[in-house]
Fold:
Amino acid sequence: MAAVADTQVVKAPRRTARQGTARPAIWRWVVLLIAAVYFLVPLLVAFRFAGIKSFGSVISQSGFTSSLGLSVRLAVVTTVITIVLMLPTTVYVHLRLPRVRRLMEGITILPIVIPPVVLIVGVLQIAPGPLKGTPYLLALEYVILAMPFAYRSIDAGLRAMDLKTIVEASNSLGANWVNTLLRVVLPNLTTALLSAVVLTVALVLGEYTMASLALYQTFPVWIYVNSQYSGQISVAASLLSLFVTWLFLMAITVAGTRRSRKKGGGAVTLFTAGRQETRGN
Structure:
């Protein structure tokens, strides 16, 4: 009887554990199914409304290539400026001015609080003449809009690593500040930088208010203008814009992931950077 009782006591927790692991898996699939229906059904309805012929008409419309090319160029320029400005600034604040973090968080949240209409109107009033005549004025505005997302992505990546120890080890091996930033800190921030790049590109490719007020025909502005003439072409252009954005972001993610795998760990990069710097000196 004692043996039977012991066997029953042992089996009961096993059944409970199996049920406990099965229930989260079921609910996970249920949530994914609901999310898929929520996002895919409107896209399928829009695709059916537009029709296959509308996609061919969108590409042949005047201004399609120029507006899409302008949006892509602005996305590239904005991303480069944002990373070049935010990465060294955030690293320096973490290393030298840790008390300024809260102030930086407050400053970088301002573009979300201030309406884009106020930003673009103010910039158009104070911008110099040559800068007003170029669409790359929008890139500077988009840098401000992307600042909250880029700063928080990089800040989260820096908090997840022992930045002070890594930098001190790199300096002890003979690497200077630039070499440490590019060859030691940067490889350890691949995921954070990818998040910042993806958010910045998505913001630029979907922004409408500033571009329309500055009288530049980016791809979102072109979609709105053509929606006044044909609803099917407008829906087809919106779906094409969504597909181009998704394809662009997937390419960035895949390229960044492969690059991080090739570079390997931060310790190897740290040793290589310090040794190469020492040899150069």
